[in-house]
Amino acid sequence: MTRMRKIAAALLAASAALLATSPSASASVTPTSRTTLFRENFDRLPLGPVTSGRGWVADTSNGSLTVEPSATGRGRELRLHTEDNGRAFLVLHDLAPARNSFWARMRLRVDHFPTAPDWAHWTIAEASGSDAPTLVRPLGGQYVPTSRANFWGVGSDLGPTGDWTAWKTSAPATAGTWQCVEFHLDAADNRVTVYLDGREKPELTVSTKQHGGTADDFVFPRFDTLKLGWQLYQADPTPSSYDLRMDDVVVSGKRVGGCSR
């Protein structure tokens, strides 16, 4: 090979190497990786009781968190157990989502919902911030005695709109089955949107002027904390204990998806 051909070959090889290692050619650099705030599937945690994980800690009262083998036989899942009106939450601190807005997705199964007392109220997700007392509950619900059933609802407490849960009979909460749930908190108009198994439930949407509380505006705090788990607020409920199983949790600046059947 002549000297000129050797130089040309060397330049071509160097160009190929630069292209292979450039950020635009790297599969690991994706919009999802830049917008994901939290991800947990519990597969790397040891089996048994747990009080913390990567980026989260437990918050319990008459409750516990346990990592168990997945019901599918693949990987692991988190079981959250409470007694009476206790609580058991996985808590994310220091979220600081861009534009004070974020998406969350998780798979969950509630073994039993309450059947007493009347109007028993439960929460699965609660977002808050240190700048205001308002608690935003994008995922929760209530036992409605007139229907003898539990229904999903969005709610809030401690803010100017008061304590409310905007449940809808078109969104029944079914016990004993896995469900993929998503919610979006959009600070542009203080909007909460809920999706069940990939389908939007527009009847559960609340916003600044449209919500279940007083005539005051519903306004988000500056979010820095998200709690995911279970809390029932009334004493002496039926049943007397509750188990929620959770897996594939993602919190992101963009919709994660993956819930469509």
Features:
mainly beta; 15-stranded antiparallel sheet; 261 residues
Question: Can you put this structure into words, describing what you see?
Answer:
- With 261 residues, the protein is mainly beta.
- The chain contains 2 helices and 15 strands.
- The chain has helices at residues 3-21, 31-35; strands at 36-40, 48-49, 52-53, 56-69, 76-93, 102-110, 121-129, 132-144, 149-157, 164-172, 179-186, 191-196, 199-200, 225-232, 241-252.
- It has a 15-stranded antiparallel β-sheet that branches.
- The chain is globular and about 50 Å long.
- The N and C termini lie far apart (60 Å).
- Mean pLDDT is 89; it is low at 1-33.
Distance between the termini: 60 Å
Count of individual helical segments: 2
Q: What overall geometry do the principal axes of the alpha carbons give? A: globular
Query: H/E order of the elements?
Result: HHEEEEEEEEEEEEEEE
Characterize the biggest β-sheet.
Answer: 15 strands, antiparallel
Give the radius of gyration.
23 Å
SS strand fraction: over 45%
- The oligomeric state of the chains shown is single chain
| Average of per-residue pLDDT values | 89
Give unreliable regions as ranges. Answer: 1-33
User: Quick one: how many beta strands?
Assistant: 15
Overall SS class: mainly beta
Q: Which percent range fits the helix content?
A: under 10%
Quick take:
This protein is mainly beta and about 260 residues long.
Topology readout:
Blueprint: H1 3-21, H2 31-35, E1 36-40, E2 48-49, E3 52-53, E4 56-69, E5 76-93, E6 102-110, E7 121-129, E8 132-144, E9 149-157, E10 164-172, E11 179-186, E12 191-196, E13 199-200, E14 225-232, E15 241-252
Antiparallel strand pairs: 1-15, 2-4, 3-4, 4-5, 5-14, 5-15, 6-11, 6-15, 7-8, 7-14, 8-9, 9-10, 11-12, 12-13
